[in-house]
Each structure stands twice: as structure tokens, then as C-alpha cells.
Amino acid sequence: MLMYLSCLGYSVISLCLFYAIYTDVKFRKIFNKIPLTIIFVSVLLILFTELKISYISVVVIFISGFLLSVYNFWGAGDAKFCFALSLSLPGEYIPTFLLFTSLAGGILAVIMLAIPRLKGKYKSVPYGIALSLGYMATMLVL
Question: Where are the transmembrane segments (predicted)?
């Protein structure tokens, strides 16, 4: 029963990842319903499965995301999305998630600079893509 609940929960999170990529590319925004859905599913996974999260890591990600968004280094939607995703990962996979996300973000930034029609069009990187790809890569490692 726990396995089915985990599969269902991570399937919902996967759908949210693809929806976040779509909205971040199309509207340059991650709508609040995406991280809220992930937070809701994550809480259910924590309560009803054997998911062990690192509360310290989650709090550090929350505070870091808040500060980065207040000082306009990072979008608030990206900060909420990263926080929500960190709630659904075991604590020992948070560094892997952040590493893969950073790599995906760097590659995405280089691609945006390399493609001439994207070069001057956007002033920022749609980091929801990088967060989603980093999360997917982390889940493959799990």
C-alpha cells in the first residue's frame, strides 16, 4: 500500500514538474498552485510513507530562496518551487538535487546566450526548467 501511495505522489509531482516547465517558458512564471500541490503531496508522503526529509536543509532552502527573491537575484516562484521540491526529497539527496539544478541552470544559461534569437529576448533564465531537470535527474539517482 505504501508503495502505491509513493508512486501516486511522485506521479503527481512529475506532472507538476512538466506543468512548471510549460508555464515558466510560456509565461515566465510559476503559478502558486504548482508549489502548493507539491507541498500538499510532500506532506502526505512524509506522513504516510517512510520519506525522511532533512528539516534543516528545507529551512535553509526556504530562507535562502526568500532572501534571494527579496533582493531580486531569483524569482519568488522559483524560490517557492525549490522549497516545495526539497520537501519531497530525502535529506541525503538535497545536495545532489542542488548540484544537478545548478548544472542544468548553467547549461540553460549558455544555451540562451548561444542562440541568437534568445540572446536579447530575455533578461533572466527560466529557472523552473533547471529546477525540474535537477529534480528529475535526482530522482533517477534515487
Answer: 30-48, 55-74, 94-115
